[in-house]
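User: Quick sanity check before I run a bigger batch. Here is a single chain. Can you write out its predicted 3D structure?
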Amino acid sequence: MATRRLQSSLVRIADPRTILFALIVCAAAVGVPLLMAAFMSFAPASYGENGFSLDGYRDLIAGGRLAEFRSVLLRAVATTVVTMTLAIPSAYWLARIQNTYLRATIFALLVAPWFVSDMLRAFGWQILLSPEGPISVSWSKLIGHGQLEGLRYNWVATVVGIVSSVLPVGILSVFAALPSRSRMEWLAAKEIGAPRHTFCLIAIRWANPGIVIGFGTVFMLSCYASAEPRFLDGPTQTSISTIAASLINAGVPALLAFSTVLLLFMLLAGSAFAFIYYLFLRIRGHRRSLLVVTAQPALVVGNVHVRPPVFGWLLDGFAKRLPPMAGCISIIMCCAPSLAVAAEAFWQPAAGGHWTLENFPLM
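Assistant: Done. Predicted structure follows.
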């Protein structure tokens, strides 16, 4: 009886009319406020006036805000490139791990920082990059010179902080697109090709839909990052939130104009990524020849192209060592800021420095 009731409930939920009604409700709940905001962005800046006006958009492009928005976009592009450069080999390394418990532990280490506030993670990077931080102290002890200055409050530090926040997104996107270790693609790639061929075939060619999704998601998240610029970007602290804050005095139409421009930009970017994703799906659906690199002379055997190696042993060594190195770097980048904040809570710099529980009076 209970099974029949469950099946009937699922049938009612999956009914096309129910799905269409839910889509209409969601579209109305999301689209109507956005359309109202876009309509109100053309209102005059002065209260009491009627008609349409471009005052909000004029205020938006005044005062160097276009240059600030361009710097945010350039930072998001750099963050996306660095993130996906680490995410692709890291996901390939995770997919090759056969121990389920080890893989789950690594995933937990990658995702654990998400349970910490982004402001605390950014503050952790400020601690790590400070002149008295562990990086500067380790460098001074290793080289014998003074402490490192200028590691924080710059563009590079901001990119590093954002990368550590969005890196798990890129890794999970690529990992989800990789074939399971039980499938024959891994064995076939290993049997007919060198390690560099296996990496290119599995991590790049097979997972290209996940790579596109990772690029799009990481880029959009990087555009809206605000905690890292606030703690690591120095006096400018340029971000979407600071641009919006500078428009408060200009009036509500300017803020709505900025939100409308952001919405259009994200829709265009999302459409571009969706189109590229569709193209990759179409390409992967066709049969393609496999490029196999061996030590034999150049020849063609059926559908398989064989080429002689060019620095083959270097490329094979790089393909073997890159994934675990990228995975370890990803784990360190994701966990380091949270660990720095935790260590700071137990460290007392007075009297030469010592560990203490004085910061926890209730314990």
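Residues 287-308 have pLDDT under 50 and may be disordered.

User: Great, the batch can go ahead then.
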